[in-house]
Amino acid sequence: MSYQTYADIIIDISHENLDKTYQYAISAELEEKAVIGALVIVPFGKGNRRIQGYIVDISTESKIDESLIKPISEVVKDSQVIESHLIYLAYWMKEMFGGTMNDSLKTVIPVKKVVKIKEQRSIQLAATPEQAEQLFFEYQRKNSKAKLRLLEALRKNNILDYSEAVGKLNIPRNTLLSMENQGVTKTVSKQLYRNPIQYKDKSDQNMLLNDEQQYIVDDFHNEYSAGKRGTYLIHGITGSGKTIVYMEIIDSVIAQGKQVIVLIPEIALTWQTVQQFLSHFGDRISIMNSKMSQGERYDQSIRAENGEIDIMIGPRSALFTPFQKLGLIIIDEEHEGSYKSETAPKYHAVPVAEQRALLTNSSLVLGSATPSLESYQRAKQGEIKLYHLTKRAKEAKPPKVFIVDLREELRNKNKSIFSRKLKELISERLGKKEQIMLFLNRRGYAGFVSCRSCGHVMKCPHCDISLTSHNDGKLICHYCGYEEAMPGNCPECSSKYIAAFGTGTQKVEELVHREFPEARVLRMDMDTTKNKGGHDTILKAFSEHKADILVGTQMIVKGHDFPKVTLVGIIAADLSLYTGDFRAGERTFQLLCQASGRAGRDILPGEVVIQTYHPEHYSIITAAEGNYDSFFEQEMMYRGMMQYPPVSHMLLILITSKEEELAGKAAVQLAEAIRLYMGQKAILLEMIGPAPAAISKVNDTFRRVIYMKQREYTILMDIKNYLEGYFTYSQQFAGCNLLFDFDPMTGY
Ligand code: ADP
Ligand code: ZN
Ligand code: ZN
Predict the structure, then answer these.
(1) Measured from the CB, is residue 447 less than 6 Å from ligand 1?
(2) 701 C-alpha vs ligand 3 centroid, how far in Å?
(3) If you measure from the C-alpha of residue 667 to the centroid of ligand 1, how many angstroms do you get, rounded to a whole number?
């Protein structure tokens, strides 16, 4: 017998075994049903035991001697199990974004962490109150002290925690057993999930939606109830009340028996947002975040699969929650860079969510105050439905924004990091007992260290990037963690004028203390939020007005609502403006809008001070005006001129190797292969490189990049597929690694 197609089949769909596939043949009559993800029955092992497995890949080549390959016995009919669906999604992601099927499966399948299931055991009274009273006298008579103690405690409480009862009351095991055998007590055990959240009673504040909000909720509900599915974008300015709109939409979808996934950036997954959802949905919602243990996360996905919850809220990875009856996915702050995976497959949550929605007949709702250019362009072209929230939900007016030219400050002999305007407003707020946020897009004590005499910059010997100085006197590499002591003299010219430049959050905090000794200051950055609950502690303290000023990195600008904050200061807007990648302008606009959005969210009016060396830059001007459309127009012009996404698509290829020569050679060879391929297929595309990456060495690994621009995504996909094949089957690439990144969000 000979077969044309073969299937790779996973027998045990758990993380440890995702790479253990077995090849089976697909007979002609099964060909149509044997698709990727399908649940099948195959003969296994010597005895040909019939067991179940999933098809994860299909090919026309046999990996072993053809005659040894057994055929698939049967495709399980209508196997609409969640695993099938996730496996297909993984396959789609691999095709779209590159990497191996194994990488992809590891992304979508939850890590099964087999840990001892926690049990809660308790002791209850089994006897009736009358019997108990009789027993009481009997135990007294017999002087059974231990029995008496337990009986008394149970008569008071009815139910006791097992270990507490046995331990505190000092009841021997045998005594307990004999009481149980006589039917006096009984032991009850309940399985406990590792539950990361404490539920509160449902307690809605019964807010009345405004017209704009109500329109969205109604329109969405009408379309959904009529069976219409699609992608929607809510463009709502900060403070316009997107959260309540999401919650109302979720309510209406759940009422139709469906389940919902809500993605929010990790940084915004703090107690404020979580509390809001918890108090609305009670124990029907669960949460995932990266600070939870694998066991905790696994439990949550099991609860989701069993239908014990209707809503999962979490960062990017929550997108793969194994809901059986998914009906809606919401992605809040859809423009956020953290929706892009850092590892292969380098997928973006938005297209993957759209694909999952398509496969499950769900809708997708995106929301942002500053939508990504990708989504907004699609909305303008009518591919996705656009909703607007143009007003702040509370009676608050948009804040008043001042742009301060830092060059002007220097000319006026102000060398402080606070402009005169910012200083004046801080003092005023402190006097009025209102709160202030100072925002800096950079962590650490200060920036890079350089010599004022010769210009030498201290760099990491492994990564070729500048070291960052921290206030414990250490210079640290933020890529590989290398550290060394701050030198007393310049290693190049021995001059003693070597010092830290730039400003970090610690430095700002220190300077605030110096300028405003009476102010109470909190700092929030990577260093102060390392521990579990670190974010929450700081934000909670600030919201309880235990500090006047909160200094922080971009994590302070995400999704927090502090009614008493009436002033936001952006110390150096330029820090994100010249980071060397094509999204820098967009990122700056987003950060400035979001930071401004923190001021005056309640009755008290807000003011914002943006300090910059480039007050004429359109990202800064449009952000100050809160004019998204104007920013969009100008930025799209730039993207069009340069053929950057979303006007064109871009594919980055990163080639890495421990040996510099190997990386260089491989990059040249791949570029050559691309040129050949283009010639054969008569494709026109722009290629940049190969060249050393901007960060040419990380952790002693050398990095080369090739960039390509093409309007047709599928052409870039073809090139990726071609290169993956070439790379895998060519000996010359041994010792090298290949990574693909479509429409990159970061520099390399
Ligand atoms: P966004 O996420 O769009 O920035 P939020 O959802 O955080 O805005 O809402 C901003 C504030 O407005 C919150 O304090 C919220 O409780 C309040 N809010 C939202 N909708 C209404 C409404 N219809 N009436 C009164 N207050 C509202
Ligand atoms: Zn020097
Ligand atoms: Zn380094």
Answers:
(1) no
(2) 10
(3) 51
CA 700–ligand 3 middle distance (angstroms): 8
Question: Is residue 530 domain-shared with residue 421, that is, in the same domain?
Answer: yes
Task: Answer yes or no: is the C-beta of 98 below 6 A from any ligand 1 atom.
Answer: no
How many Å lie between the centroid of ligand 3 and the Cα of residue 504?
Answer: 19
Nearest to 573 by CA among 597, 559, 554: 554
pLDDT at 445: 40
Give the HSE-up count for residue 554: Cα atoms under 13 Å, Cβ half-sphere.
Answer: 19
pLDDT-derived band at 691, boundaries 50, 70, 90: confident
Range of the domain at 379: 211-263+277-282+309-394
Mean pLDDT of 150-166: 83
Are the CB atoms for 402 and 569 separated by under 8 Å? Answer: no
Which of 585, 619, 640 marks a domain boundary?
640
> How would you classify the pairing of strands 21-26 and 5-10?
antiparallel
- Residue 324 in any domain: the answer is yes
pLDDT in tens, 531-572: 766 777 888 889 899 999 999 887 777 656 788 999 999 998
pLDDT digits (tens, 9 = 90+) for 626-652: 999 999 999 999 999 888 999 999 999
CATH number, domain containing residue 609: 3.40.50.300
Rg (CA), the chain: 31
Ligand 3 center–CA 702 separation, angstroms: 12
Atom of ligand 1 nearest to the CA of 237: 3
Amino acid at 710: Q
Q: What is the pLDDT of residues 184-205, one digit of tens each?
A: 888 877 655 555 555 544 455 6
> Is pLDDT at 352 greater than 80 in this prediction?
yes
In this prediction, residue 464 carries a pLDDT of: 66
The finding on whether 207 has its CB within 6 A of some atom of ligand 1 is yes
CB 274 within 8 A of CB 197: yes
Q: For residue 527, name the pLDDT band (cuts at 50, 70, 90).
A: confident
| Ligand found nearest the CA of 465 | 3
Domain's final residue, options 82, 108, 134: 108
pLDDT at 444: 41
249 and 233 assigned to the same domain: yes
> Can you read off the two tokens belonging to residue 597?
């959005």
Q: How far is CA 497 from CA 415, 500, 506, 662, in A?
A: 18, 10, 22, 40
Pocket of ligand 1 contains residue 560 by CB under 6 Å: no
Task: Verify that 259 and 346 share a domain, yes or no.
Answer: yes
State which H helix or E strand residue 675 sits in. helix 660-681
Ligand 1 pocket, mutate which of 240, 562, 628 (most atoms under 8 A from CB): 240
Quote the ligand 1 centre to 558 CA distance (angstroms).
Answer: 14
Ligand 1 neighbour 519 (Cβ under 6 A):
no
Which ligand is in closest contact with the Cα of 596? 1
Residues 411 and 361 in one domain: no
**DSSP per residue, 717-744:** HHHHHHHHHHHHH-GGGTTEEEEEEES-
Contacts of 711-718 spanning 24+ positions with Cβ under 8 A: 711/647, 711/648, 711/649, 712/649, 713/649, 713/742, 715/683, 715/685, 716/649, 716/651, 716/685, 716/742, 717/95, 717/96, 718/681
For the chain, what is the domain count?
Answer: 5
Q: What is the pLDDT of residue 9?
A: 93
For tokens 């067991």, name the residue.
Answer: 51
| CA 260 to centroid of ligand 1, rounded, Å | 21
Question: Ligand 1 pocket, 238 CB below 6 A?
Answer: yes
**Mean of all residue pLDDT scores within the chain:** 87
Which tens digit of pLDDT belongs to each residue from 658-690?
Answer: 999 999 999 999 999 999 998 988 888 888 888
**Pocket flag, ligand 1, residue 240 (CB < 6 Å):** yes
Domain co-membership, 692 together with 570: no
pLDDT of residue 269 exceeding 90, the answer is: no
